[in-house]
From TrEMBL:
Coiled coil: none annotated. The lineage of its organism: Bacteria, Pseudomonadati, Pseudomonadota, Gammaproteobacteria, Oceanospirillales. GO terms for molecular function: methyltransferase activity. GO terms for biological process: methylation. Keywords: Methyltransferase, Transferase. This is Class I SAM-dependent methyltransferase. It comes from the Bacteria. The keyword Methyltransferase applies. Pfam families: LCM. InterPro entries: Ppm1/Ppm2/Tcmp, SAM-dependent_MTases_sf.
Length: 289
């Protein structure tokens, strides 16, 4: 499938934005968010999925939320390390939705960090409204419009990157985005991303991926959860790559030079994650150009 088959640069993917209200409420419920980002619509969407989550949890011992928390806390951890150990001082979080990460990291690293949260125009306007109502935006912390499908123009990656200082390291995050797109579409985005990152002295990308782990003991339930997310967002939710090695090869093919695939199980002792009896369904990718 060519990138243009289902997702032309002007395809409207705003149907996916409902999922940001859902995940925003998950962060809130687990004490990871700020009161300023509470949304009643988020609570409603969370309630709508609660019975399905309870069913998956009863059968599989883990649910959609378990893997959301794994990805979120590990991305936070990797971002902290990049800031403290690798001199990252500029962050772009694409598809930030209602995530508290920008506000939380700006509280912690106010004097050394520039943070740009980006999303489709409607979601960006919502986030800007929430943050500015509480005085949380500044020259150092901004919200911008970005559409990962846009090859050029105001919402494109190159315009987003043009506001950064190209003499300093940069880190880009996408969380909860890549599995909404077919592989050729998301790899087209990753290639453009790598092309932009390479113009900085250091360029790192963090994302999570739900791989197609066909040998997973609860693969049927992974597929069920996949269908539920697809229904909520009125589209597909394709799983990408069969294992960690395929992920590494895939990212190398997009222009990334150093690729680490993090398995949540290796963080059980250092982060407050639920220890699962089954393998995790998610991986966190740290890729540098
Ligand atoms: C599951 S939410 C993730 C929100 C946030 N990162 C989190 O984890 O809570 C998916 C996000 O992708 C955004 N999105 C959908 N299509 C997009 C596109 N073409 N370009 C950029 N963002 C997009 C949605 O608006 C939404 O905020």
């Amino acid at each position: 499938m060519s990138p243009s088959a289902n997702f032309s640069p002007d395809a409207d993917t705003s149907r996916i934005s409902i999922s940001a209200l859902y995940t925003g409420h998950v962060w809130f419920r687990h004490g990871l968010s700020l009161p300023e980002l509470y949304s009643f619509k988020g609570k409603l969407s969370y309630g709508a999925l609660a019975p399905v989550n309870a069913l998956i949890r009863a059968v599989a011992g883990a649910d959609i939320e378990t893997f959301l928390l794994e990805r979120h806390l590990i991305i936070d951890e990797l971002l902290s390390r990049a800031i403290e150990q690798q001199g990252v001082c500029q962050v772009i979080e694409i598809a930030a939705g209602m995530s508290p990460r920008g506000a939380c990291f700006m509280r912690k690293y106010a004097h050394s960090l520039r943070y740009i949260e980006a999303d489709l125009p409607e979601m960006a306007a919502r986030k800007r409204r929430y943050l500015s109502q509480h005085g949380l935006l500044s020259d150092q912390h901004q919200v911008a419009e970005c559409n990962i499908l846009a090859q050029e123009g105001a919402d494109s990656l190159s315009v987003l990157f043009s506001s950064l200082d190209s003499s300093k390291p940069v880190l880009v995050i996408t969380e909860g985005l890549v599995n909404y797109f077919e592989l050729p579409v998301i790899t087209d985005f990753w290639k453009r991303l790598a092309d932009n990152l390479v113009t900085f002295p250091k360029g790192i990308y963090l994302t999570e991926i739900y791989p197609d782990l066909q040998e997973h003991p609860l693969y049927r339930w992974v597929q069920f959860a996949q269908k539920v997310v697809g229904l909520l967002t009125r589209g597909g939710y394709p799983l990408h790559y069969r294992d960690d090695q395929e992920i590494e090869v895939g990212f190398a093919g997009c222009g990334f030079a150093e690729i680490k695939v993090h398995n949540p199980a290796s963080y059980y002792d250092s982060l407050p994650l639920k220890k699962l009896e089954i393998p995790s369904a998610v991986r966190i990718v740290e890729a540098a150009v």
